[in-house]
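Data card: per-record layout.
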Amino acid sequence: NSGGFGENDWGGGIFVSGDNNTTPILDNLIIDDNIGGGLWGIAGGGGLCVIGTGNKPHIKNSIISNTSSESESGALFACWDGEIKATNCLIANNNTTGVSSGCATGGSDNPIELINCTITDNPSGIYTFGIVSVSNSIIYNNLDYWGDNHSYNNDNGTLTVNNTLIQGGYEGEGNIDANPYFCNPDSGDYTLSENSPCFGAG
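The structure for this 202-residue chain is written out next.
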């Protein structure tokens, strides 16, 4: 799916909008190969794009992959007062930021909560212009074109991380900086091997 390529276009795989206090439960989905909307940094989108006051979907047990965009975007993307809660999700192999809170055209908190999520093999892990909280998750191998690690980019937002394996490290209770030892990531298997440091780490 495409969100469109005009300056006023939003969307992508799943688009939640309007001031309707929409709180859908999105369970057991594969959101793959979507193009976010927007153009030249105006509007945007992603795998799951949420805008509008009171809108807060809860996505769980899902995979978001192969997302791209010509504008502001993320595999999970919240702007204009939108919010997202994600539990037990794999956010991997996207051509844009894995998780993005906030955008230039809408200054607000845009809270995103990540619980038991894996964010890996994206050019950037998390972008915070708004608020992102992470717990019991894995953020690893989010490398740019030159191979530099970008677990997070905090752009005057608020990023809280606890009990998480995060490459490069981050201040917070129970965080570790280590190789998670995925079983076979080259084949899309991001389950953890028996010797993973994540077991018993929080």
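Known properties of this structure: The CA atoms of residues 123 and 147 lie 9 Å apart. The chain is about 0% helix and 40% strand.

See the next section for split statistics.
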